[in-house]
Structures are given as structure tokens and as C-alpha cells.
Amino acid sequence: MKKSPQTYFEFFAGGGMARAGLGDGWRCVFANDFDRMKAATYAANWGDEHLICDDVANVRPSQLPGHADLAWASFPCQDLSLAGDYLGLGDASSSVQTRSGTFWPFWALMRGLKAASRAPRIIVLENVYGLLTSRAGKDFLSVCAAFSGSQYRFGAVILDASRFVPQSRQRVFFIAIDSSVDIPHELIDEMPSADLHPSALVEVQKKLSSHAKQQWLWWKFPLPSSRAKTLTDLIEESPTGVAWNSDEETAKLLSLMSPLHKSKVLEAQQSRKRVVGCLYKRTRIDDQGQKNNAPKYALMASLDVFEPPAAAQAVKQFSSLRGPA
Q1: What's the rounded mean pLDDT across residues 273-281?
Q2: Domains of the chain by start residue, with CATH
Q3: Which residue of 20, 118, 231, 316 has the fewest CB atoms within a 10 Å radius of its CB?
């Protein structure tokens, strides 16, 4: 007999990338996002049958159907980084929440489901690396306290997007399992592993309360094989329909770079090989203590030899790209 797909709730759903990753073995029964443009994208990708476009604080447990196997929440990251002044999650009782503090109404929903004996068996949270360090680790500890106080066994791992795509984006994943669920022993390690638990995670875990430490798990699972393709493999040599920057615009962007990233551009030019890189703005503190958005040039190199001026074209092609801080 064919096994029924497992069910899940998708919070802070965006365009539905968690849904894309989970695939056909899982069935979404509820999705939520506050942003109308993101909700429209989600509906275009997956339909709007289970989608509610509203503030998560307005969602009630009664709107969440059945007893889902999984709740996924990629809650906002802005206040866990310099771009958001490290305002953090704030407190659950705060009358005015930060954007990242929308974690708390989400968690209130999970507690409501728990009280109704409908708590998801698995909860996954995803956020930026700054969650480990924002407010000197207080936000990380707050999430851990939320899990341990609701009878979940939990742990966190760090995964880098570079294992899947040609861009390095480290992300924190909390994986929490209801205490009523048996966890296969092969998924748990006695000690942290370098691949999943870098030193920053190990250090902040030491700050957990004694109760939270009792609930903590060092997750263990096989990592995906190394990525075979580079960005250079994916980018066309002579793309059409591209809004190229002028020489003046390119020079302006290059002038904003730090000496370190200027040296990377020079090294690429001198290599006489085909090198493709991305230029994006990243918030940093300058010498006067002010925030700025100086461009950072991230190079993905290839051994393919090319004829000039392809290097200059590559810089221009990607100089207008932007990424989150």
C-alpha cells in the first residue's frame, strides 16, 4: 500500500523554497507569509489553496489543520545582523517586536498546538549565522530555552549553500523533535562534528542552561557530495538581454571596494583565465564607526582560458547584483 505523504506547515514561506526542497514525499497543509509580493510568488509557484497572507501574530491555532508532522519556519533575519543593528529577537512579552522577533508569535502558535495535543513532531528553524552571536548569544539561548521548555529535544547544525550552488551562504538550522518521538540512534552523535558544528556553535552551546543541555542533541547525518559545477560553468560567455553597466558605473563600483577586494579583481585580470565573480553590497562599519554598504567581490574561478575583454565584461555583468546583508 502506498504510504501517504507526511504533512507540514510552512511559516514565513516566501516563494515556497522549503516546499520545493521537501518534494513530493511531503504535503503542505498550511502556508503563511506577511508580504503580499512573496505570497503572490508562492501562489504562482504552488497555488494558494493553503496560503494565508497575514501577520503571523494574527494566525490562530484553529487555522492550522490536523496534527502536522513538521513545522518549518525561516523567520526574518534582519535584526540578527549588522544591517538590523543587532536588535535581535527581543522578548516574547515585548509590545513592539523587531522583524526577527516575529519568532515569538510563531512560537506562541506552537505552544497553542502543544496545549491542544497537536504539536508538530518536528520543528525546523532556519536563519543566518548571526543567530549564534546576536546580543552576545542571547537570541540563540532564547530559542533553545523555548524548545527545552516545551518538551522538545533539539540541536543545531550549520550548512553552507556552497555544497549545492556556487555561492557561500552559511545558515543555522535548528532541528527539534517532540519528546514523544523515538529518534534513531544513528542520527545522534555524542560529540560535535567539525562538518556540522563549527567552533562558534560549540562555544555558544556551552552557555545553555542545565535543563536545555539535557535536551540538546548533536545531530549526525551524511553531508551531500561536493558540488561539481562552478559559477563559471553556468554563466554564458556572451549573454543577451543584459543591462550592462557603463565604464563609468563600473569604475564607481570598483572605487568603493576595500583594498582586499580590489586585489581580487586585479588577481583575476592578471590570471589570463576565465574568472566569473559576483559583486554585492555588504554592510560594514567604517573607520568613523558608521555603517556603509561597500561592495564585496566574491570570485568563483575556473581554469577555462578566455580572450580579453571577457574579464571586464564579467565584472560589468554582475556588478548590479544585490544580496541580503
Answers
A1: 76
A2: 6-219 (3.40.50.150), 231-318 (no CATH)
A3: 20
